[in-house]
Structures are given as structure tokens and as C-alpha cells.
TrEMBL record:
Domain called CENP-V/GFA: residue spans: 3-106
Signal peptide annotation: none
Protein name per UniProt: GFA family protein
Organism: Mesorhizobium neociceri
InterPro entries according to UniProt: CENP-V/GFA, Mss4-like_sf
UniProt keyword annotation of Metal-binding present: yes
Top-level taxonomic group: Bacteria
Length: 131
């Protein structure tokens, strides 16, 4: 299986060669990083990721994580935790065919906004990380 995607302007492109593990993330860091009520993240082994055009710009978003984005259009593209260098996340909306990437659980559930109702029937996991 190979999936591809990229940023809004097309400068940054990627492909992944494995089945992603997809979830909703409700933590306040993901909300601020995406400018949305939650993020939808697709985790893949780092070795299955290939940047097929320009690489994103990376910035440290917390003491434990780094995020990638397009320096031209600003699209948020990736998330990686220092403690898990063997996996990296891509934002589901950046995939060319996101309709195939259905979330299977919620993360950061205690920080979920009260009016967000998608994925309520999925398993919940929490995080202690906050901005």
C-alpha cells in the first residue's frame, strides 16, 4: 500500500508505504497547531515515509515534540515525539485520498471540546501534555 499527499501549495509532497494508525487528537496543542477543534493524525513507521518533493520546515512545538509545516503556504504536515523516533504522524487532511483513513480512537479525550461529537463511540485515551 502506498499513500501520497502534500501541502496546499504543492511544494512539500510525501508518500507512505504502510497502513497508518489513525485517530482524533483533542489535546490543546494539536488544536492550536492546526487552528481547528481537533486534529486527525495518521501514524506510520518513520522508515515508510518518503519526502518526494521539498521537505517541510520543522519547529519544536513542545519540550517533547516537533511539528513540520510548509514554509510557503503554512500547511501543518507532521508531528513527531522525541520518545518515539520510530513513528511519525501526518495530518489526514494532507493525504490525496483522506477518505480511506478512518479514525479508530480518540486521544487527549479529557481535553475534548464539549461541542465536538465526532468519534464519540470510539475508544478514548488521554494525555497529560498541555500547552
Amino acid at each position: 500500500m502506498e499513500l501520497s499527499g502534500g501541502c496546499l501549495c504543492g511544494k512539500v509532497r510525501f508518500s507512505v508505504g504502510s497502513e497508518p494508525r489513525v485517530h482524533y487528537c483533542h489535546c490543546d496543542m494539536c488544536r492550536r497547531a492546526t487552528g481547528s477543534a481537533f486534529a486527525v493524525l495518521a501514524w506510520v513507521p518513520t522508515e515508510s515515509l518518503n519526502w518526494t518533493a521539498a521537505m517541510p520546515t520543522f519547529r519544536r512545538s513542545s519540550p517533547i515534540a516537533e511539528r513540520g509545516f510548509c514554509s510557503d503556504c503554512g500547511t501543518p504536515l507532521s508531528l513527531g515525539y522525541d520518545a518515539s523516533p520510530g513513528e511519525t504522524a501526518r495530518h489526514v487532511g494532507t493525504f490525496d485520498e483522506p477518505e480511506h483513513l478512518e479514525p479508530r480512537y480518540n486521544y487527549g479525550s479529557r481535553q475534548r471540546l464539549g461541542w465536538v461529537c465526532c468519534g464519540m463511540d470510539l475508544p478514548h485515551r488521554d494525555t497529560e501534555e498541555r500547552r
